[in-house]
Design the sequence.
């Protein structure tokens, strides 16, 4: 989920050049307040089980 938020932050807030770190901090804080108040949800397209099937090489199952 953090990766999704970073992509949204990049697309909505950090597309332009900013010369000063203080400006970046100010912009990110403003974006964060709006994003948190929006209560955005993640629309997962498939279940965890389906993800494991489709990505079995990335997420091996652990045997007891």
Sequence:
């Amino acid at each position: 989920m953090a990766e999704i938020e970073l992509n949204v932050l990049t697309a909505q807030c950090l597309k332009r050049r900013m010369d000063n770190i203080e400006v970046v901090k100010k912009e990110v804080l403003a974006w964060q307040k709006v994003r948190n108040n929006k209560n955005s949800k993640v629309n997962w397209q498939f279940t965890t089980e389906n993800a494991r099937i489709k990505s079995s090489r990335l997420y091996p199952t652990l045997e007891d």
The chain has one domain: 2-54. The first helix runs from residue 2 to 12.
